[in-house]
Structure formats: C-alpha cells, structure tokens
Amino acid sequence: MGRGPASLLRRPFLTLLLHKPFGVLSQFTREPGSRWGCLADWVDVPNVYAAGRLDADSEGLLILTENGRLQQRLTDPRFGHWRTYWVQVEGLADDVQLAALEQGLVIKGQRTRPARASSLDPSLWRELPERTPPIRERRSIPTSWLSISLREGRNRQIRRMTAAVGLPTLRLIRRSVDLMDGDPPLSIEGLASGQWRPVKPPEQERLKALLRTEGARR
Question: Which residues of 117-153 are buried (b: 16+ CB within 10 A; e: fewer)?
C-alpha cells in the first residue's frame, strides 16, 4: 500500500485501486493555472491511467491501469457497470425524492437511466473521516447521507440529480465499481484517502476475464 517502487508491482497489465482525495484531478498532469492537484502527487507508478474519472471536488475509487482495453471495457456504457457513491446532501431525503432519483430525471435535456437510491445507515457514514477542507454547513439546514448507484457517468451527474430533487450535494465519495461478474465489487474498503494498492491476484483474474468476455462478443 502506498508509494512502493514500481518495479516491485509489475505483473501482466498493472492495475491499481486508488482512494482519490478531494482536490485532485483524475489525470497525471497539472492544468496550467488550476488550483487542483493531480494524480502524480499521490501515485508514483508510471504508465497507468484512470479508467473513467472523478471530478476534482469528488473523492473515492479510481481504477488505474496500463491496459487500454481494460480502460475502454470499464467505461463503455454498453456494459453498464454499477458505480456506487456515498453522497452527503443538504436536507433530509424523503421517499418521493428517492423514487425520483431511481426512476430517472431529465438533466440537460436527457433522461438519466434508472438508478438505485437509498438513505445511508448512520453506522456507515459516521465512520468517515472529515474532508479536508471541510464541507460548508448551514446551521438551519440538516444534512444527510444517501447511497446512489449509477450505470452511466455523465458530467457531474449525481450533483445535478440531487439538485433537481432539492437535495444539493455537499460531499461525494465513489465507494465501488461492480465488475458485473457475480463477485463483490472493487471498492476503497481499507484504503484511507490518498492511499492505493495493486489489485490482488483474484481481482486481476476477474479483470482478465472481462477482457476475454469482451473479445468473445466481437
């Protein structure tokens, strides 16, 4: 875990799981004039790139790989990998708002695909460390946490969806990506913000199987 030499991590197509911190772009180069950091500040392994992205002001799971086919496979909307997010919102969600999130909303002229949405058990979110910098809070308005799962990834989609039902997003953490193979999703479980690890051998075999499946469909 952490900043080990790349030579110790080499294996057939290197893949890492990163818990991306707040304030970091999902790329390895800084943007001129940007206040955001980049992945190179946290991951010192060459030739890996993000399969998908998280906005700089979002946190959580990024899958980094040197395999271009795997990048494509994990982000291709045809395969609809469920991505689960823990979302802190301003306000308390009711059943009507949760149903609207699940059924789909018209965002920027397009209806979102059906999703999964539920209130998050306090025993889960109370264990989360504070974000740095901390979120803004208004004393007169309570906050709450939701679990939202999507099979698509439009620009700032969750933030726009929660805003559309009157629950502005304050903090957004991607918890997991489901490989849709019947086994548990890949997740940030056990990784503190900023930490990364190589995938374990069983996870590596599951990723290889995705590529075999993709090849069989062609």
Answer: beebeeeebeeeeebeeeeeeeeeeebbbbbbbbbee
Query: Which is the catalytic residue, given 41, 55, 57, 178?
Result: 55
On average, the pLDDT of the chain sits at: 91
Residue 169 makes CB contacts below 8 A (sequence gap 6+) with 87, 88, 89, 158, 159, 162, 163
Predicted model pTM: 0.91
pLDDT, tens only, 161-175: 999 999 999 999 999
Q: Any catalytic annotation for residue 55? A: yes
**Radius of gyration from C-alpha coordinates of the chain:** 18
Q: What is the CATH number of domain 6-77+182-217?
A: 3.30.70.580
Residue 65 has pLDDT above 70, yes or no: yes
| In CATH, 83-176 is 3.30.70.890 | no
